[in-house]
Amino acid sequence: MCKVISVANQKGGVGKTTTAVNLGIGLAKEGKKVLLIDGDPQGSLTISLGYREPDGMEVTLATLLTGIMEETEFFSSDAIIHHEEGVDLIPANIELSTLEINLVNAMSREVMMRSLVECIKSDYDYVIIDCMPSLGMLTINALACSDSVLIPVQAAYLPVKGLEQLIKTIGRVQRRLNKKLTIEGILLTMVDSRTNFAKDISKLVVDTYSNQIKVFETLIPLSVRAAEISAEGSSIYEYDPKGKAALAYKNLTEEVACHA
Ligand code: ATP
Ligand code: MG
Fold this sequence. Notes:
Layout: E1 3-7, H1 16-29, E2 34-39, H2 44-48, H3 61-69, E3 81-82, E4 88-90, H4 95-103, H5 112-120, E5 126-131, H6 137-144, E6 148-154, H7 157-161, H8 163-176, E7 182-189, H9 196-209, H10 224-228, H11 236-239, H12 244-258
Parallel strand pairs: 1-5, 1-6, 2-4, 2-5, 6-7
Antiparallel strand pairs: 3-4
Helix pairs in contact: 1-12, 3-4, 3-5
The structure holds adenosine-5'-triphosphate and magnesium ion.
Magnesium ion binds at residues 16-17, 40, 44, 130.
């Protein structure tokens, strides 16, 4: 059985892409078959995996979704890239933003990505979708085809306050489009353990949400090494295997795998 997980938060720069990469590669290291889908026109996941010029790529998520929308072509395995660290990738580039605009007028606009994922998921144990920082049509598509949502939250006051809107949107998608959608958990990222402030924020999240939503025990530390990997094209396990961020992402991987 494949599990589809969206990594989502409309707040920008909270660690979604870093989490998608290192959870995906973490699961692959545990022997799981993993597909990562870049759901952001910025192509950050694609770039983070070492494909530095996504806008020059010919076949991307936008190509596949256009094929589905126009009923010209359903799925082509040409769009899947095999990464050397054992994960597969459907890349994205700026064309995805044009597609998002076109989606607005399409029939069944919220479930285009579901048609795609349904075609591929039997080949994988996990499909992980890196969402863009908005609650627009692409993120709704990702939520509509997912089993669960993992919510990275930067351990700071304002990002934590912004969670309500995301949780409301998830509830709406659950009721209208995808009954099986659950929240995998809230993941605190960029935690600066030297400060009391980080501890206060962690406590605020646990106190506010833990009766309704799982808050991962793993905290992702603030780490210069973690910040550097997006330019390296590799995971934290390759780049800094003994560092605290690698250990944290390994622990997160175990928490997610145990919950499957
Ligand atoms: P966007 O909303 O733009 O898609 P995002 O939520 O995907 O952003 P990332 O791109 O993963 O967030 O991270 C934002 C920035 O913070 C990046 O420059 C990244 O390298 C850095 N970063 C990610 N995780 C950490 C960490 N644990 N410690 C320090 N810096 C980090
Ligand atoms: Mg991102």
